[in-house]
């Protein structure tokens, strides 16, 4: 192995004589670190679009059908005549907001960035198993982003059937204008996205299995890598199912098949569809859709594990229990999809089974939460912005996760299904939590990505305003959900019953707007620090993992000489046998040193 | 003008931020300039206290919410099975609040208590099988109890006993309205398929089916108190969801299949209006509406009607642009009133006859009816 590593080093030196052109270095790069940055910046751009959409529809919800000049400026005369948001564009905004945030920001932006950056660096590999496939993966993702954004400009408007695109609504342009060419572009974009995601995932899996450096056994992998690895496996198992669902939907839409459609009378005529079932689509969609939640949250939890351990100057508590819980969550995530369908018309007996499997997920989730809290106990906490976001993640993960006990219970789901209670739940547990994980990762690994530091005080302001606003938005939302307010309503003014919820909606929107605007602090910090940030030292957080043994200046192949050999697990923080409070993984065991952990 | 104001606010915000970063800088201990952008003891101290403050924020916000917004949430179920749901819900809430209270305290308090100091070393505490067993075991036991209670209630609610005496009502969904069909004296709904939709027969009922002869189609849903109503749901176009929030009942309406849900109303509409919580809620809503009306009148627009409570059936699955306004009034009558109301309604057969009788057949209608015949043949096959 070490001889092989040496060969790689030689190859690398040989390679270095070729001058990188601008195009091979910054655009069609096969270097995982550059691809990670490409993913991140694309993700951030998509995130800006997604968050801005949510601010627009939140304004409509707080001040229904009022005229805002900004609506007219952004949405145009067709969708916001006189500055009043039209009802079909409201649904389009909700749909595209969900799609962008779930897939483009929290799947590609989060997993794509940090899996690419950290897998080779933390396992001690010179690059991904296939740099070429990695490049193709990014560019397919880029293309899918372009297609998704271009769907905003088609005449009838973008897809508007909700991010879950349930047919028949998504299949019939007669049912909603967005189901015309907007929906076609949505499906094309998602097909490209899935292809990109599969290429990425296969690459991650192969790299983790085959390219670990000498001494890096599976039980010495940082929890980040475990999370990315398991996430990639879930992705490979479930994304193809969404692809097939999307293909069948394309057949139904364009070639007259009846996979998901049957007995439809719309716009004064009977359609020819016979024998299909929308419930079948729901099964296929959620077979990906639910694991997708874990595809989003597991990398965030992996990042958090690493950051909490480093900044607590303590080993992560229960390393093996953490791995077991990741595996348990991954396994369970593939057999709980039916809890989105308790009242879909499927057999109630099936509902019982899914209630059982769903509530089981609370056990590994509880283990993770308690392990994080115990890691903080008697630590020497370095409250860097990344650490604050990680603690914030644990907080919102608990708050949002607990209401999952209600939604996962079929009996209780009957009355809160598809209300704002659901919106509050999943935004806290996967939306905000995963976003915090992403921010934590950015603050922590920015020095590794750009060789410079982010401004910490701007980071603190960013965190505190975001933390207050996140609770401010989603905590009150539970109440309006419990009042029976359905989600995806353009306005509630047709129901005097809900008149008393309007003040709460105004409060929610106020928090949403403040929180949204304050993300500018992050954007300013991020983009200005790339160029003007303070130069980073090699290992600013005094961390144990291998990425901090590489030079600050990026180079192909990551390490100038041989790849370091690994002698210990990644969490030897404050090990009583050592003077320093951290012992990097490549430090050999001392004479007679005993392993102090399981 | 507004844009100018917005710009001024943004500039002021930026200045405030700049000042805040200055304050953070000043809180750092020691005179030496530290621009490493890594948290030092001063940062740890400030952020630790802020963590503690955030804990207070979460608690105060939660308590504020519970006091201020609890009156908004659904109360007193109007159906027989509703108490099963609400009781389970309350038990679950108690558990959630206990866990939430404990974990958030520990998390934020530890973040405050163990804020770092230079030269201090953390405790090397890597694992404990005992602790892991405790905190996977306790949730497992608690969840097992919740699952058992949940499944017991679920089975009772969802499986309708075939022998039980129920009133069969079809709820029919289409963009963007609801229609109801009563099975009539035989309590069996006639067969139906969207391919049979023709004129006043908007639900596609098979008029040749003997069971359909006494079916009654109405646009307002009346159900009797104290009788279990067995709803059968159909949709003619896209997915809808029939949501009866006050009855703790919901079921999707799926084109191409019939879904079902049964519940027994236990308060008539009038009785439910008299419940103290509802009286208070309606008064509150009317106060809000009066205020809004005053604003509207000042602008020269008509005032809002005062609100009286009615049970509602809402669409709760995104179904198109006007999804937000797909509703039907539900009236719970005494059994006598219900019988009287229903007996005054014409059957579908009578309505079809009335519609066909006076009008001479025009060319356009004729092609329509031949088309209907074609599709009727398919529908027969489909209905098997």
From TrEMBL, chain A:
Compartmental location: Membrane
Keywords annotated in UniProt: Electron transport, Heme, Iron, Membrane, Metal-binding, Respiratory chain, Transmembrane, Transmembrane helix, Transport
A Pfam family annotated for this UniProt entry: COX1
Ranges of residues in domain Cytochrome oxidase subunit I profile: 22-591
Signal peptide: none
Bilayer topology term: Multi-pass membrane protein
Cellular component GO terms, alphabetical: membrane
GO biological process entries: aerobic respiration; electron transport coupled proton transport; respiratory electron transport chain
Superkingdom of the source species: Bacteria
Main location: membrane
Alphabetical list of PROSITE patterns matching this protein: COX1, COX1_CUB
Entry's transmembrane regions: 39-57, 89-119, 131-154, 185-211, 223-251, 293-309, 321-343, 349-374, 386-408, 420-446, 458-484, 504-527
Family designation: Belongs to the heme-copper respiratory oxidase family.
Protein name in UniProt: Cytochrome c oxidase subunit 1
Organism phylogeny: Bacteria, Pseudomonadati, Bacteroidota, Flavobacteriia, Flavobacteriales
From TrEMBL, chain B:
Gene Ontology BP annotations: ATP synthesis coupled electron transport
Main enzyme class: translocase
Bilayer-crossing regions: 47-67, 88-111, 133-154
Record domain Cytochrome oxidase subunit II transmembrane region profile: where: 66-161
Sorted UniProt keywords: Electron transport, Membrane, Respiratory chain, Translocase, Transmembrane, Transmembrane helix, Transport
Family: Belongs to the cytochrome c oxidase subunit 2 family.
Protein's UniProt name: cytochrome-c oxidase
The species this protein was found in: Flavobacterium fluvii
């Amino acid at each position: 192995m070490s001889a092989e590593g040496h060969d790689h080093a030689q190859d690398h030196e040989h390679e270095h004589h070729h001058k990188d052109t601008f195009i091979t270095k910054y655009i069609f790069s096969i270097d995982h670190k550059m691809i990670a940055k490409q993913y991140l910046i694309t993700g951030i751009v998509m995130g800006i679009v997604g968050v801005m959409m949510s601010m627009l529809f939140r304004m409509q919800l707080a001040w229904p059908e009022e005229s805002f000049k900004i609506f007219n400026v952004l949405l145009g005369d067709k969708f916001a005549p006189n500055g009043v948001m039209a009802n079909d564009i409201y649904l389009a905004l909700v749909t595209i907001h969900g799609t962008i945030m779930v897939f483009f920001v929290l799947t590609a932006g989060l997993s794509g960035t940090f899996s690419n950056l950290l897998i080779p660096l933390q396992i001690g590999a010179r690059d991904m198993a296939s740099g070429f496939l990695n490049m193709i993966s990014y560019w397919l993702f880029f293309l899918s982003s372009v297609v998704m954004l271009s769907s905003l400009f088609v005449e009838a408007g973008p897809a508007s059937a909700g991010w879950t695109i349930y047919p028949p609504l998504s299949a019939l342009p007669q049912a909603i204008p967005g189901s015309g060419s907007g929906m076609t572009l949505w499906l094309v974009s998602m097909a490209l996205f899935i292809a990109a995601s599969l290429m990425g995932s296969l690459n991650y899996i192969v790299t983790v299995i085959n390219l670990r450096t000498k001494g890096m056994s599976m039980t010495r992998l940082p929890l980040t890598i475990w999370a990315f690895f398991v996430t990639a496996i879930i992705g490979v198992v479930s994304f193809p199912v969404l692809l097939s669902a999307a293909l069948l939907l394309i057949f139904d839409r364009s070639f007259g098949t009846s996979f998901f459609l049957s007995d439809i009378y719309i716009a004064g005529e009977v359609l020819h569809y016979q024998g299909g079932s929308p419930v079948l689509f729901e099964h296929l969609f959620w077979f990906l859709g639910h694991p997708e939640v874990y595809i989003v949250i597991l990398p965030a939890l992996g990042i958090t594990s690493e950051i909490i351990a480093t900044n607590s100057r303590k080993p992560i508590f229960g390393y093996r229990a953490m791995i077991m819980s990741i595996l348990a969550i991954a396994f369970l995530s593939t057999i709980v999809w039916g809890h989105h369908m308790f009242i879909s018309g499927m057999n109630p007996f099936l509902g019982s089974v899914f209630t059982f499997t769903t509530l089981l997920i609370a056990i590994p989730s509880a283990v993770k939460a308690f392990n994080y809290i115990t890691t903080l106990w008697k630590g020497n906490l370095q409250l860097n912005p990344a650490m604050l976001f990680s603690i914030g993640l644990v907080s919102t993960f608990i708050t949002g996760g607990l209401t999952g006990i209600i939604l996962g219970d079929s009996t209780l789901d009957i009355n809160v299904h598809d209300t704002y209670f659901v919106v509050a739940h999943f935004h806290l547990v996967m939306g905000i939590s995963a976003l915090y994980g992403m921010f934590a990762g950015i603050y922590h690994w920015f020095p590794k990505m750009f060789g410079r530091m982010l401004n910490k005080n701007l980071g603190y302001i960013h965190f505190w305003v975001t933390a207050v606003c996140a609770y401010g938005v989603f905590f009150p939302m539970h109440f309006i959900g419990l009042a029976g307010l359905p989600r995806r309503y353009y306005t509630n003014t047709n129901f005097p019953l809900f008149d008393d919820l309007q003040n709460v909606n105004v409060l929610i929107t106020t928090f949403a707007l403040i929180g949204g605007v304050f993300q500018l602090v992050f954007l300013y910090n991020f983009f200005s620090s790339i160029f003007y940030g303070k130069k980073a030292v090699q290992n600013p957080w005094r961390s144990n993992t291998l990425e901090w043994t590489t030079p600050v200046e990026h180079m192909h192949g990551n390490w100038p000489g041989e790849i370091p050999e690994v002698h210990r697990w990644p969490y030897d923080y404050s090990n009583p046998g050592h003077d320093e409070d951290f012992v990097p993984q490549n430090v050999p065991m001392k004479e007679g040193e005993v392993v102090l952990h399981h | 003008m507004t844009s100018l104001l917005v710009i001024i606010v943004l500039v002021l915000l930026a200045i405030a931020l700049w000042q805040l970063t200055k304050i953070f800088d000043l809180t750092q201990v020691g005179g030496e300039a530290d621009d490493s952008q890594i948290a030092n003891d001063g940062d740890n101290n400030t952020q630790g206290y802020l963590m503690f403050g955030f804990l207070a924020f979460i608690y105060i916000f939660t308590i504020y919410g519970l006091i201020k917004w609890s009156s908004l949430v659904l109360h007193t179920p109007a159906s027989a099975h509703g108490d099963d749901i609400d009781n389970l819900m309350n038990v679950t809430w108690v558990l959630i609040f206990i866990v939430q209270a404990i974990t958030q305290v520990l998390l934020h308090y530890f973040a405050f208590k163990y804020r770092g100091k230079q030269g201090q070393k953390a405790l090397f505490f890597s694992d404990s099988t005992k602790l892991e067993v405790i905190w996977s075991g306790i949730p497992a036991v608690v969840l097992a109890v919740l699952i058992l209670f949940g499944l017991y209630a679920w089975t009772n609610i969802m499986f309708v006993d075939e022998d039980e005496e129920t009133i069969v009502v079809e709820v029919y969904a289409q963009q963007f309205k609801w229609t109801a069909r009563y099975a009539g004296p035989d309590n069996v709904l006639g067969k139906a398929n969207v391919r049979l939709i023709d004129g006043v027969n908007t639900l596609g009922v098979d008029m040749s089916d003997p069971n359909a002869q006494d079916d009654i189609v109405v646009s307002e849903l009346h159900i009797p108190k104290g009788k279990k109503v067995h709803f059968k749901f159909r949709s003619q176009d896209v997915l809808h969801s029939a949501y009866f929030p006050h009855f703790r009942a919901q079921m999707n309406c799926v084109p191409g299949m019939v879904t079902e849900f049964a519940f027994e109303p236990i308060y008539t509409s009038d009785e439910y209006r008299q419940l103290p919580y509802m009286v208070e809620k309606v008064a509150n809503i009317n106060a809000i509406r009066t205020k809004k009306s005053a604003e509207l009148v000042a602008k020269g627009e008509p005032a809002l009607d005062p609100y009286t409570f009615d049970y509602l059936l809402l669409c709760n699955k995104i179904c198109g642009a006007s999804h937000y306004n797909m509703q039907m009034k539900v009236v719970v009558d005494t059994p006598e009133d219900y019988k009287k109301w229903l007996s005054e309604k014409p059957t579908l057969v009578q309505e079809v006859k009335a519609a066909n009788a006076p009008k001479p057949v025009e060319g356009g209608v004729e092609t329509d009816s031949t088309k209907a015949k074609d599709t009727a043949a398919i529908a027969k096959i489909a209905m098997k």
